[in-house]
Amino acid sequence: MIHKTIDMTVEGSIGTPTLTTYILDYEDCYVFTERPLVLICPGGGYENISVREGEPIAMQFNAMGYHAAVLNYSVAPARYPAALLELASAMVTIRKHVKEWHIDPNKILVQGSSAGGHLAASLGCFWNSEFLVNEVAGGDESLLKPNGLILSYPVITSGEFAHRDSFRALLGNKEETLSAKMSLENQVTKDTPPTFLWHTFTDGLVPVENSMLFATALCKAKVPVELHIFPKGAHGLGLGNRFTCSCEENLQPETTVWIQLAQAFIEQL
C-alpha cells in the first residue's frame, strides 16, 4: 500500500491540513487494473475532525478493491474558503497522480459525512468556479471535477432545516452575508456530479430534509441521484456499526448496508 501523508496547506489554513493516501499497490495481481478512488471528508461540524468517519471508511473501500484517501482539513477558527481550497488541492493532487497510483480517472469520487458532506458537496457545486480553477488548478478545471459524490447524513441547507452550528463555525462573522451562498441546494447545476445520499429519518442533529433538498435540486437539474432514507438511527453513524457510531444507544444495524449500496453506485458510473 502507498500510505503517504501530504501537506495540503493553503492560504487561510490553520494547523497542518493533510491528505493521507491508502493506495492499493499489489504487484502480484494476475491482472492489475486501474481502480476507483474515494476521497473522504470526515465530519465534525467544521469544529473538529471525526477520526471514526475517516480511516475506518477508507479501510472499507480498500476492502472493496478501491483506493482511498482521507482529508484532514482546517476547521474553526479557519473560515470559508480554507477547507474548500484544501479539498480542491487534494483533488488536483490525486488527478496528477492517476498513472503513478493506477487510479481510474473516470471514477474519482468524494465522500463526506455530516459537515464533511457539506464540504464534499461544495466541491461538487463549485468545482468549475473561477476562483477554484484559477487559484488551485492553474486554469485547468478538468483537474477539479469529482466523478461522483457520496454524502452521508450531510449538512446541506442554511435555511429552515439548517445545522446552524456548522455554518457558524464555517463562516464566522461572515455568516449573514455568505450563508445563502453556502446553502447548497441552491447551488446545484447540470455540472454537479452524480450523487449518492443516505440519511436517517430520526436524525436529531442534521434533519433528513438536508438530503431531501439536495436530491430534489439534483432532480431539477437532471443530475443522476440515488437517495436512501433509513427509518431509524441517530446522527453520526459512520459505517453504521457499533464501532464507528457516535451514539450506540440509537444505533440502527440495517444502516450498515449503505456502503455496499455506495459500491453499486460507483460500479455503475
Give an overview in words.
This protein is of the alpha/beta class and 269 residues long. It contains eight helices and eight strands, in the order βββαβαβααβααβαβα. The protein has an eight-stranded mixed sheet, with helices on both faces. It is globular, with a radius of gyration of 17 Å.
Outline: globular
Q: Kindly report how far apart the N and C termini lie.
A: 25 Å
What class would the helix/strand composition place it in?
alpha/beta
User: What's the alpha carbon Rg, rounded to whole Å?
Assistant: 17 Å
| Low-confidence runs of at least 5 consecutive residues | none
Q: Helix content range of the residues, please?
A: 25-40%
- Tell me the total number of β-strands: 8
Mean pLDDT figure:
95
Topology at a glance:
Elements: E1 5-7, E2 18-22, E3 35-41, H1 55-63, E4 67-72, H2 82-95, E5 103-113, H3 115-126, H4 130-135, E6 148-152, H5 164-171, H6 175-178, E7 195-200, H7 209-220, E8 225-230, H8 258-268
Parallel strand pairs: 3-4, 3-5, 5-6, 6-7, 7-8
Antiparallel strand pairs: 1-2, 2-4
Helix pairs in contact: 2-3
